[in-house]
């Protein structure tokens, strides 16, 4: 009988404050969808870091005849065969180096033509203007500075470049976007909590006669509070369910179909469905607990039970 009474009171409360309940549902849905999206974005950036940092190379570019005339780092002339052999020998002795690949001027020219063949500059370039280089795979990508210190300024070396620096800029941008999404999520979450508190307050005020009678007949505080807490929890659960739908639909249409980023951006290893599905229980739990706790603390003030 008590359970039936609580359920009936929940239905009455939701119907009386239908507009505010709808606002709570929408706010919870949007804030938790952003929360789930931010978690997935963070996981995606972490996965991309692990994937790309494992593939980055350090490149040692060697001086050619053109550099000897224009680049101060190559003032002593183009790299010689002996200098190349010394550089390669020293690289192979270094503990941080995993593999070394030599790229000749002809190979560099061929790769350039493959990537930038439509560029007006490509037509005027010749193989002897390209730079020889050593592509170095490090055992630990963080050890770039060891290579830079050993070879920057060395005879025959034009420059030492670390591809990780380029990736760091990309990941910094992605992390900034993720922090912006978390900021919007926090704002939406505050709005949702304020709406929940206000909805509970209005509901408690509209039923102040019933709660007063219940106190007079000796009803327990929990028995009086339960319908209001459950109203907030039900509205939150509906919002959480919508947030889960948003995440699933968003993943389906942006990655797999619709925009189909998984086929258009082959260089990115997108997270699978398992990563999305593991976030859904967390979102549903938060959607129930957050409104219930907000309602509980609001009732302590407004019901005085």
Could you explain the architecture of this structure?
- Helices cover 71% and strands 8% of the residues.
- The two termini are 22 Å apart.
- The protein has 305 residues and is of the alpha+beta class.
- The protein is built from 12 helices and 4 strands; from the N terminus they run ααβααβααβαβααααα.
- It has a 4-stranded antiparallel β-sheet.
- Helix 2 (18-53) crosses helix 10.
What is the ordering of alpha helices and beta strands?
HHEHHEHHEHEHHHHH
Total number of strands? 4
Low-confidence stretches: none
Shape descriptor reads: elongated
Write out the strand line-up for the largest beta sheet, numbering strands in chain order. Answer: 2-3-1-4
- Gyration radius, rounded: 32 Å
Strand content: 5-15%
Classify the oligomer.
single chain
The span between the termini is 22 Å
Total helical segments: 12
Helix content: over 70%
Residue-averaged pLDDT: 80
Largest sheet: 4 strands, antiparallel
* Class by alpha and beta content: alpha+beta
Structural descriptors:
305 residues, alpha+beta, 4 strands, 12 helices
List the helices and strands and how they pair.
Blueprint: H1 2-16, H2 18-53, E1 58-62, H3 65-70, H4 81-93, E2 97-103, H5 105-116, H6 120-124, E3 133-138, H7 144-151, E4 157-162, H8 163-206, H9 208-216, H10 221-256, H11 261-264, H12 273-302
Antiparallel strand pairs: 1-3, 1-4, 2-3
Helix pairs in contact: 1-10, 2-8, 2-10, 2-12, 8-10, 8-12, 10-12
In brief:
This protein is of the alpha+beta class and 305 residues long. 71% of the residues lie in helices and 8% in strands.
């Amino acid at each position: 009988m008590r359970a039936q009474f609580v359920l009936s009171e929940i239905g009455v409360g939701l119907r009386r404050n239908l507009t505010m309940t709808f606002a709570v549902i929408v706010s919870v849905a949007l804030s938790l969808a952003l929360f789930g999206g931010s978690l997935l974005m963070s996981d995606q950036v972490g996965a991309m870091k692990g994937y790309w940092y494992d593939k980055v190379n350090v490149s040692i570019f060697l001086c050619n005849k053109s550099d000897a005339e224009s680049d101060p780092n190559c003032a002593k002339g183009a790299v010689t065969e002996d200098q190349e052999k010394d550089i390669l020998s020293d690289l192979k002795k270094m503990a941080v180096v995993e593999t070394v690949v030599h790229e000749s001027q002809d190979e560099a020219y061929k790769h350039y033509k493959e990537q930038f063949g439509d560029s007006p500059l490509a037509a005027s370039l010749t193989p002897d203007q390209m730079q020889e280089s050593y592509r170095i795979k490090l055992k630990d990508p963080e050890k770039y500075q060891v290579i830079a210190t050993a070879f920057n300024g060395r005879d025959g070396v034009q420059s030492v470049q670390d591809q990780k620096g380029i990736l760091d800029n990309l990941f910094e941008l992605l992390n900034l976007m993720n922090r912006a999404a978390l900021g919007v999520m926090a704002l939406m979450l505050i709005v949702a909590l304020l709406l929940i508190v206000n909805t509970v307050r209005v509901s408690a005020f509209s039923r102040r006669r019933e709660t007063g009678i219940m106190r007079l007949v000796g009803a327990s505080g929990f028995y009086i509070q339960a319908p209001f807490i459950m109203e907030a929890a039900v509205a939150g659960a509906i919002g959480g369910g919508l947030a889960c739908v948003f995440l699933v639909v968003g993943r389906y249409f942006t990655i797999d179909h619709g925009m189909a980023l998984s086929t258009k951006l082959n260089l990115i290893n997108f997270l699978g469905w398992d990563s999305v599905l593991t976030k859904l229980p967390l979102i549903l739990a938060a959607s129930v607990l957050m409104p219930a706790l907000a309602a509980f603390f609001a009732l302590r003030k407004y019901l005085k039970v």
